[in-house]
Amino acid sequence: MRVLLFFLLLVPGLGGCGRGGEVARKEFQLTLRQGALPADQQVIRVHQGDEVILRWTTDEPRSIHLHGHDIEKQLTPGAAVAMWFVARATGRFPIMLHGQQEGDEPILGYLEVYPR
Ligand SMILES: [Cu+2]
Fold it and tell me: I need a surface site. Which of 14, 49, 58, 66 has the fewest CB within 10 A?
């Protein structure tokens, strides 16, 4: 009896979900220059459930805001700043500059989260 119980505890995958693709950890380097991202860094594509790390550097002090996941960070030259989150919601979320003049909050790029 005790042996059987031990065996059942060892069976892998019982109670796991495991459907769909594997959840991945995705890292992106984002380099702000004069308040803009290079064209090839303006769209960040991940899948729902992914763990995402955005690593920012900048040449000027800036405040950035990832909508949808609502993360705001201050960037200063010479210091890398990471945004870490799990992409729970699907959709297309703008990343904006904040702290500019009133009414001037340009969109730097988009985070696109696709369904799994
Ligand atoms: Cu914003």
Answer: 14
Question: What string of pLDDT tens digits covers the 116 residues of the chain?
Answer: 555 554 444 444 443 444 457 889 999 999 999 999 999 999 999 999 999 999 999 999 999 999 998 899 999 999 999 999 999 999 999 999 997 666 678 999 999 999 99
Q: Map out the domains of the chain as residue ranges.
A: 21-114
Report the C-alpha gap between 7 and 108 in whole angstroms.
54
Q: What is 21-114's CATH topology? A: Immunoglobulin-like (2.60.40)
**Interval between CA 30 and ligand 1 midpoint (Å):** 17
pTM of the entire predicted model: 0.78
Ligand 1 centroid to Cα of residue 92, in Å, is 14
Residue 47 CA to ligand 1 centre (angstroms): 22
User: Comparing C-alpha atoms, which of 72, 77, 73 is closest to residue 59?
Assistant: 77
End-to-end CA distance of the chain: 41
Task: Give 106 Cα–ligand 1 centroid separation in angstroms.
Answer: 9
